[in-house]
Amino acid sequence: MEFPLAHEKINRAMIIYKRLFGLMHPDVANVYNNIGILYIKQGLFVEALELLHKSLDIRTKVFKFENLEIAKSYNNIGLVYERQGRVEETLEYYNKALEIFIKYFGENHPHIAIIYNNVGYLYVN
User: Fold this and answer.
1) Cα Dmax for the chain
2) pLDDT tens digits, one per residue of 43-76
3) Can you tell me the distance from the alpha carbon of 105 to that of 5, in angstroms, rounded to the nearest whole number?
């Protein structure tokens, strides 16, 4: 994976979105989320959490209700906590994501199965 090139392109997108829309916009939140995921792939969990929380903060202020983007933020933050071995925080964020996904999709959906699987795996380790 070419992390420097990925960072360069994503940061260019951030500059454009901030210039066009300001800081409090869903597209800015998406870029923070994407950089956070990039940091996860690099094993930079502290940096990832910082940006994923920024993304979540924007999403909760912009949308003002629980939607799928907020659920994805909760899930991604839970993933970082899982990688750090922080079980309590992992469960907290996975459960928040699960609650929203169930509202949108019901119990029988791949997103629901993934989170149940992730939570089950936590109990094994």
Assistant:
1) 47
2) 999 999 999 999 999 999 999 788 999 999 999 9
3) 36
